[in-house]
Amino acid sequence: MWAIVPVKTFVYAKQRLRRVLDSDERAALSRVMLEDVLSVLSCSNRFVGVAVVTGDIGAVKLSRKLGARVISDPNDCGQSSAVSNAVATLIKEDIETVAVIPGDVPLVTSAEIDLLHESHNEAPSLTVAPAHNCDGTNALLCSPPTVIQFKFGENSLSKHISLAKAVGIVPNIVRCEGLGLDIDTPSDLMALIAAPTRSRAQSYLHDKGIALRVRSYSKTITSMKLAESS
Fold first, then answer.
1. CATH, domain range 2-181
2. If you average pLDDT over every residue of the chain, what do you get?
3. Which of these, 101, 128, 129, 133, lies nearest to 34 by C-alpha position?
C-alpha cells in the first residue's frame, strides 16, 4: 500500500482562513501541517512508500527531506485530479492499494493509520475516514487503486460512498478523532488550538501569537452572534 498526499500550492492554500491569517501565515501553517502528516506516515510500517502530489517547490523540498516520493502536479488543478494522476503513475508499478490522506490533518496518529489498515478488506474494497463535519473525506483506502473515481470537495463523503455502492462495495467507515480534523475554517483552527495533543502546527500557532489572535476573533464573533439573537 502506498500513501498519496495531495498538496496545494502553499501560497494559494487555506483561503477560508483569510479572516484570521495573512498569506504568509497561511503558507507557513500549510507547510508545518504537511510536516506533521508526513512525519507520521513516513514512520508507519503500513506503507511501501509515501507519495506527495504537488507543484509547490517548498512542498517538494520538504517531502524529499522527509523521504517521500514526489509526483509533479504543476497545474495545481484540484485534489481529485492530483490523486488520479498519482494513481495513474503508481498503478504502472503494480500497486494494489492506495491510501489518500490530505496534508492538512496535523493531528493524525500512527494508531489511526493502523486502525484504517486493519479495517480495510481484501479487494475490491473501500475504507473511508470522514472529516469531523461528516461531509468531507479525510482518508480513502482503495483496493484496487482505481476501484472508484475520486470526488473530493463538497459532499465528498456521500459521493465516495455512493460510487462504492454502485460497483457493489459496502465501504468501511472508520471515524478517527485526530485524522477527522482538517483545517479549513477559523472554527477548525480553534479546534486545533484547543486540542490536548501537541503538533508542529499547534506549536507554530502558539509561538507566533496566532493562537491568542484566533481566540480573540472567536470571542468577538460569538459576542456578535449573541447580540444579534438578543
1. 3.90.550.10
2. 93
3. 101
